[in-house]
Amino acid sequence: MSVVAIPTRRHPGMRPAPRPRTGPTLTITLDLAPGPLSPRLARLVQLLGELAESGEGQLRAVEDGASGPRPAPRPAAEPSAEADHVRILAGSRVVRQGDRVIALTRIEYELLLFLAERPRRVFTRLQLLSSVWGYEHAVARTVDVHVRRLRAKLAGSEVVTTVYGVGYRLADEAPISVDHSS
After folding, report:
1. pLDDT tens per residue, range 58-82
2. Where are the CATH 1.10.10.10 domain residues in the chain?
3. Cβ neighbours of residue 18 closer than 8 Å, sequence gap 6 or more
């Protein structure tokens, strides 16, 4: 189990810390299962370590007495290109990132497929609403929300690029392929 304390502002109504501290803290507890860390968890541990190294927080490992000591978290390894590669299996409407299946909503899937089939083209929000959603009568920011969710689900892969003031496009170096035979 790892605990990270990062100074933060105290909000009204917060309970006081059980022991005196020099300032308010934010404590994050991670229950680490035996074995290798998932890529996302490894990235989180890496980011927390970077915060601690920068002097913005403290990182300390705490042993869980119930299950015995656990090894300190390993720093995240550089992800391999194959693990980040996104593969759209158009016939079965399945999206894979490396060896895991990514669960996407219908719109997220259609948006990803639309952009992947049209690399290096920039689309406005209204063009995407018309082409992917099939209508233009929604708030254009709807596209932003779906792009944000898609990016979160494809963490580690830079797939969708924002063209500020215009819209979105598939990233130039996007690790993505579309397989229409599957």
Report:
1. 655 544 444 444 444 444 444 456 7
2. 81-179
3. none
Across 22-59, b (16+ Cβ under 10 Å) vs e yields: eeebeeeeeebeeeebebeebebbbebbeebeeeebeb
How confident is the chain (182 residues) per 10-residue block, as mean pLDDT? 45 49 63 68 71 62 47 48 84 90 93 94 93 80 91 87 93 90 75
Q: Residue 52: CB partners within 8 Å, gap ≥ 6?
A: 4, 58, 59
- Tokens 């089939």 label which residue? 117
Please tell me the class of the 81-179 domain. mainly alpha
Q: Look at residue 105 in the predicted model and tell me its pLDDT.
A: 93
β-bridge mates for residue 167, sequence order: 124, 163
Under DSSP, the state recorded for 90 is T
**CB 179, CB 88: distance < 8 Å:** yes
In what side-by-side order are the strands of the sheet with 86-89? 100-102, 94-97, 86-89, 176-179
Q: What is the Cα–Cα distance from 31 to 8, expressed in whole angstroms?
A: 22
Owner of token pair 């035996």: 34
The β-bridge partners of 123 are: 168
Q: Residue 106: name the closest of 158, 146, 135, 142 by CA.
A: 146
